[in-house]
Amino acid sequence: MILSKLWRLYEADKRILRFSPNTLKEYALQHKMLATELGDLVISEVTFTLLKEYLANQSEQVEAEQLRTPYSFCSFPLPLCL
User: Fold this and answer.
1) From CA 38, how far away is CA 59, in angstroms rounded?
2) Single pTM value for the model
3) Tens-digit pLDDT string for the chain (82 aa)
4) Considering only CA atoms, which of 48, 28, 49, 50 is closest in space to residue 39?
5) CB–CB of 43/7 below 8 Å?
6) Cα(29)–Cα(32) distance, rounded to whole angstroms?
7) Following DSSP, what letter does each residue of 44-69 receive, concatenated?
8) Residue 66: which region, alpha, beta or left (left: phi > 0; alpha: psi -120 to 50)?
9) What are the residues facing 56 on neighbouring strands?
């Protein structure tokens, strides 16, 4: 089974379980990012190592994006955010 078909089945299952539409949108985004990076692989080709590499890459991208952000999202008073 390929990732795109697996996603459709997973999404249908979560809709039956009444997951929030917002949660499903976030899951769909994560699936799209994974499929863009790895391709629409057969599920048996997805290894633990491949997923770890993908997550490490995503973590690096998020970290780089946070460094480019000119402002802080800290909700504490300024001295506690520094």
Assistant:
1) 16
2) 0.66
3) 998 999 999 999 999 999 999 999 999 999 998 999 889 999 999 999 999 999 998 888 776 666 666 555 555 554 454 4
4) 50
5) no
6) 5
7) GG--HHHHHHHHHHHHHHHHHHHHH-
8) alpha
9) none
In contact, 3 and 10? CB cutoff 8 Å = no
Q: How far apart (Å, rounded) are the C-alpha atoms in residues 54 and 7? A: 17
pLDDT at position 58, please? 87
- Total number of residues shown for the chain: 82
Tokens of 41: 């692989």
Write out the two tokens for 30.
């994560």
Nearest 5°: the CA angle 52, 47, 43 is 125
